[in-house]
Amino acid sequence: MKVLYETNHFIVIEKPVNVPSQADKTGDIDCLTLIKEYLKEKYKKPGNVYVGLVHRLDRPVGRSYGIC
Prior knowledge:
The longest helix is centred in the middle third of the chain and has 12 residues, at 31-42. This protein is α+β, with helices and mostly antiparallel strands. It has one domain (2-67). A three-stranded antiparallel β-sheet has the order 1-2-3, with no helix packed on it. It has one helix and three strands, in the order ββαβ.
C-alpha cells in the first residue's frame, strides 16, 4: 500500500488493483484493514483504530482515494 498524503486526520493511499476497499464475503485483505494496521503500527496505538471510508472503488480499480 502506497501512502500519498497523510495528516493527523486524513490519509490518502493508492489503492492496489484487485484489493477491495472494504471487507467483503471473500475474506480477502482489504484497504481499510491495511490502513488500520499501518496506523496502529506507525503510531503505536493501543486498541482499535477507526478509519472511515470516503470513496469505495471496485476491486479491479487501482487509483488514489482518500480516507478520513
